[in-house]
Amino acid sequence: MTLVIAKFVPGINTMAAPLAGSMKMHFWQFLRLDFAGALLYSVTYLMVGYLSRDFLAATLNGFHAAGRVMEIVVSLAVVVYAAYHLLQFIRYKKYRIVPRVQAQELTERLASEGADRLQIVDVRSHGYYDAGAERIHGSIRIEPNNLEEEIKSLHQDKDIYLYCT
Prior knowledge:
Blueprint: H1 2-5, H2 12-22, H3 27-51, H4 53-91, H5 103-113, E1 118-122, E2 140-141, H6 147-151, E3 159-163
Parallel strand pairs: 1-2, 1-3
């Protein structure tokens, strides 16, 4: 009887054949009982599948519905993400091109208009600036990490030139 129910119990199934051999069970008796156990095992699981088919179908339909909802949520998230970045791109497009001035042009402007009309600002970060570093004569240094606060200290009536590394 152990051979018939052995398929349902992990561990016993593994030990059933060696135990039958050690008890000197006849080959055809072992084969009949093992086949009966395999048949009972297969029929039992087929019946469980047949009897629970409606429950499994309902569960599968639930998974399909949840998958459609997740598809909509992920699609909306991608659209919102893309729209946000497009809006940011449009909003800050004017800052993408920063006007640049050559050193010679700035020197000529300083000589012609004087330093009272211009404000030169050193915005090098800590990694590139040390206390003994040379700066352009008449320039001031502001911390780039606190730029919004530091800009308030600049003269708004002057033309402001920034330089870094």
